[in-house]
Design goal:
Structural class: alpha+beta
Distance between the termini: 40 Å
Number of strands: 5
Shape: globular
Strand order of the largest sheet: 1-2-3-4-5
Helix content: 10-25%
Oligomer: single chain
Radius of gyration: 14 Å
Largest sheet: 5 strands, antiparallel
Strand content: 25-35%
Length: 64
């Protein structure tokens, strides 16, 4: 699926890069076949779903 000269990283490695971005629709396709959504959720190539992991307002206040 990817044109890398070396093999693409495994889906769980977090090293894949964006090959198609659609910010107007809220998603991007990674070179390993995963689809990442703006809400931090993911759809993996094997069909598994990674639920969004949103930061709460309290966590944002502490980080600021």
């Amino acid at each position: 699926m990817c044109a890398h000269q070396t093999l693409c990283p495994a889906t769980d490695s977090r090293a894949a890069h964006v090959v198609a971005a659609h910010p107007e629709q809220g998603w991007s396709l990674l070179c390993d076949g995963a689809i990442v959504f703006d809400d931090t959720g993911e759809l993996l190539p094997d069909g598994r779903v990674v639920e969004p992991h949103r930061v709460t307002a309290e966590q944002l206040a502490v980080a600021a």
